[in-house]
Design brief:
The strands form two sheets. Strands 6-7-8-3-9-10-12-11 form an eight-stranded mixed β-sheet, with helices on both faces. A four-stranded antiparallel β-sheet has the order 2-1-4-5. By secondary structure, it is an alpha/beta fold. It contains twelve helices and twelve strands. Helices cover 32% and strands 23% of the residues.
């Protein structure tokens, strides 16, 4: 699969965040082969994640946002080595995960966990809640049966469920309760890092805030670090410290949450920002939408140069010829756009965020 491996057009930044870095992701790439015929001959590749670079700081919540199909979930899965990377590196607390053996990876897994999007599909309907939460304890610890039972009760209590319900099955719980069970399973081994893969997308709006508040409380109490994947910009603004915006497998913009929502510099981020309603009627009436034309290109055949150029309101011929450098406009604010610091981009920004 040598044709699926790419070399970065620019040297990877040495530091993308201030503070004690827990994960360093460099030039991460994941291509899925497209096969054809009885012999399953490879005729192309889906570029799900394409040369992605970012850091995750200990104790923070890094939001990862973008439209469906942008590669957010695949990024999270490759970071945890649930899917193997095509190329690039994932360094977790000084350990290179893409190069370690299965035995060492198994010993590292308790420190990295995941909360999945669909709380119904991610829980085995044939297992009791106690068995589901206790499974990581069986696999990775030498706890006695009584100690496991006590730990399961404590975990249910931590996530706001009754420990007496450990013998019930997932179908006996609501969607929000099932997601709490998934969270209890994820924190059972006292992990350092948790990937939250759209954990509220399948829940009622009335339940979403409860689950997000639970995640925040657990982060404060247990010292967790989150990668919070979502397409809901409003919710990410509430929970995240920094935000990375993905489009068609690439990081378009990365900065702290305040700057991303008050001064977005990438045209794609600006378009997403313009679609979020403002609660103040006077401001909302003065804003204009940045309407993106066309559909998202296929990740099996992405555009040349900048992958966003086919829908970008300020694209030029240069955008088709050159891949934009992922560069630091100002301290801690990274953008992959040729014109992010030009007057043209600033005019778009002023259009959607009037004074």
């Amino acid at each position: 699969m040598s044709d699926a491996t790419i070399a970065p057009d620019q040297p990877a930044p040495t530091e993308l965040a201030d503070g004690d870095t827990l994960l360093r992701v460099r030039n991460l790439t994941k291509y899925f082969p497209i096969t054809k015929g009885l012999l399953a001959r490879t005729v192309g590749h889906v570029r799900a994640v394409d040369d992605v670079t970012f850091d995750v700081i200990k104790g923070e919540t890094l939001g990862l946002v973008g439209e469906s199909g942008s590669g957010k979930s695949t990024t999270g899965r490759v970071m945890l080595q649930l899917d193997k990377a095509t190329s690039g590196t994932v360094e977790f607390d000084g350990r290179e995960l893409t190069k370690i053996g299965s035995g060492e990876l198994r010993r590292t897994r308790p420190r990295m966990q995941m909360v999945f999007q669909d709380p119904h599909a991610s829980l085995n309907p044939r297992m009791t809640v106690g068995s589901i939460i206790g499974e990581p304890l069986v696999e990775h610890t030498n706890m006695s049966k009584s100690d496991r039972r006590s730990r399961i009760g404590d975990l249910l209590d931590i996530v706001g469920l009754d420990a007496k319900h450990a013998n019930r099955y997932p179908h006996e719980f609501s969607g929000g309760q099932r997601q709490r069970i998934g969270i209890a399973r994820a924190i059972a081994l006292n992990p350092d890092f948790v990937v939250c893969d759209e954990p509220i997308a399948a829940l009622d709006v009335s339940i979403q805030a409860q689950v997000v508040n639970l995640l925040e409380e657990l982060q404060d109490e247990l010292g967790l670090t989150y990668l919070f994947i979502s397409h809901d910009l409003s919710m990410v603004r509430h929970i995240a410290d920094r935000v990375a915006v993905m489009y068609l497998g690439k990081i378009a913009e990365l900065t702290d949450v305040d700057r991303l929502y008050t001064r977005p510099r990438h045209p794609y981020t600006q378009a997403l920002h313009s679609a979020v309603p403002v609660p103040d009627p006077s401001i909302e009436s003065a804003r204009e939408r940045v309407i993106l034309t066309g559909d998202i290109p296929s990740p099996a055949n992405p555009p040349s140069g900048c992958v966003f150029r086919t829908r970008c309101p300020i694209a030029t011929d240069r955008c088709a010829a050159e891949v934009p450098e992922f560069r630091e406009l100002e301290h801690g604010h990274w953008v992959a756009c040729h014109y992010a610091d030009t007057e043209q981009a600033q005019l778009v920004d002023e259009l959607i965020t009037p004074a």
